[in-house]
Amino acid sequence: MEKLVVKGPTPLKGEVTISGAKNAAVAILPATLLIDGVCTIENLPNISDIKISCTILEKLGAKITWNSPHSITIDTSHITTTKAPLDLTSKFRASYYLIGAMLSRKGEIEVGMPGGCKLGARPIDQHIKGFELLGANVTVEKGRIYAKAKKLKGCPIYMDIVSVGATINVMLSAVLAEGTTIIDNAAKEPHIVDVANFLNTMGADIRGAGTDVIKINGVKKLEGNATYSVVPDQIEAGTFMLAAVATRGDLLIKNCITKHLESVTAKIIEIGGNVEDNGDSIRVWCNKRPNRATIKTLPYPGFPTDLQPQMGVVLSLANGTSTINESIWDSRFQYTEELNKMGAKITAHGKTAFFEGVKKLTGAPVYSSDLRAGAALVIAGTAAEGETEIYNLEHIDRGYENIEEKFRKIGAKIERVTE
Ligand code: EPZ
To answer: What is the pTM of this model?
Structure first.
């Protein structure tokens, strides 16, 4: 078993470079199934979710050449099966994108029920509603999803809930459909724009991504023969911004799109941190105890749920009592029990948590319950006095490229140890 051992407290200082966005990349990879040919994808994050995605695509018949740890050339000319490996597809959430992509490409797909972080109920009814409106027949049986369509036909689709996954999945299934699809009440996250940009580069006709109405004019074919670079990961960037505040450090975060980070920037300034926005890099520093705050997570451009645990570490050390209301996921406060083991004073009731700020955290053995909880514990360990041992690293490795290396370069005393 592996664990991270962090010795603190250390104010994080220096420069860190952000990787490609996990949540864009895990959608762009299945989107290559729409191309009857070859394309190159660059700036892929080197994380386990990407490796699993590539293995699944290979099992479906794609040929992948690794040009570097961050770039692949993928040939999807010969897709040989419509059955995705159940064990692998059940391992992570984004396997649901295979449904939209394979419905477009082959008119049929069988996948395992998507897995991923345990954040409470994660229904996919809006995805299924979209596929069915486009003309597919979808059944869920024995832990598998079967989807089949003789022909997909564009139509208006109103999303009852703002969903990142359903918006992207419906986009994937509509690109090659006959006629026009209009997704209303669409999600607006930067990764939705990135997937649309990728598909448009390959020949799709998608307009309005990044607003709540996306119009997709079906095209006959995507040609490929192009290179696309994945957008920088705004959640990784936000993680380092909050790490700078929690540890009272000073970080220059390079290769990010600061426009994607406005809600985080605003909160950091509100609690007394400092931010210098350079457009494609951002400097964050803090030399005093942060002030209390009230946070509500919301779909983009609101404060992201995927930065809620990292902000929770900052607020557990703030002056006064803070409140976080988690409006997206039912169970995203599991990390608060781990922070309490480190001396935090957090009370979580359902989707609200109260953070009575303490002056310091102290090291303890802690368990990461999901990806962002794991990142929060790395920040907490760096800010805390003494030694913190972090377990369940498989969650962190799913979404953060070489986390200990990046933290070590900015001063953290962190080691990965095999027990
Ligand atoms: C994506 O999950 C991200 N995952 C999540 O990131 C992120 O937390 C989430 O969006 C919200 O930003 C990927 O992109 C792979 P949703 P997704 O559909 O698409 C409800 C991380 O840490 N809903 O936007 O699965 C749902 O229950 C991960 O990187 C339905 O009711 O999220 C939730 O309350 C964790 N029916 C809300 O909508 C549906 O059909 C938003 O979910 C779909 C969703």
So the answer is: 0.97
52-61 per-position pLDDT tens digit? 999 999 999 9
Q: What is the pLDDT of residues 353-389, one digit of tens each?
A: 999 999 999 999 999 999 999 999 999 999 999 999 9
Residues 164, 191: contact at Cβ < 8 Å? yes
How confident is the model over 331-348, as pLDDT tens digits?
Answer: 999 999 999 999 999 999
CB atoms within 10 A of CB 184: 11
Best probe residue, ligand 1, of 171, 328, 371, 395 (max atoms within 8 Å of C-beta): 328
| 411 SS3 class | coil
The count of residues in the chain is 419
Tokens 């960037």 locate to 237
Pocket of ligand 1 (CB under 6 A): 23, 26, 93-94, 117, 121-127, 161, 163-166, 187, 305-306, 328-329, 371-372, 399
If you take atom 13 of ligand 1, which residue's CA is the nearest one? 23
Q: How far is the CA of 168 from the centre of ligand 1 (A)?
A: 11
- Distances, alpha carbon 184 to alpha carbons 53, 155, 369, in Å: 29, 11, 34
Please name the residue ranges forming H helices in 301-392. 308-316, 334-341, 371-383
DSSP at 146: E
Catalytic site residue from 39, 54, 117, 155: 117
The pick from 19, 126, 161 for probing ligand 1's pocket by mutation, whose C-beta has the most ligand atoms within 8 angstroms, reads 161
CA distance 254 to 126: 36
First to last CA, the chain: 5
Give the residue ranges of the chain where pLDDT is below 50.
Answer: none
Partners of 209 in beta bridges: 211
**What is the CA 217 to chain-centroid distance, rounded?**
27
Alpha-carbon gap, residue 391 to 207, rounded angstroms: 44
Can you tell me which atom of ligand 1 is nearest the CA of 305? 8
Q: How many helices and strands, by DSSP H and E, does the chain display?
A: 14, 23
d(CA 344, CA 355): 8
Structure tokens at 221: 């074919």
CA 225 from centroid of its chain's CA atoms: 27
Distance, in Å, from the CA atom of 105 to the CA atom of 36, rounded to the nearest integer, reads 9
* DSSP-based three-state secondary structure for 354: strand
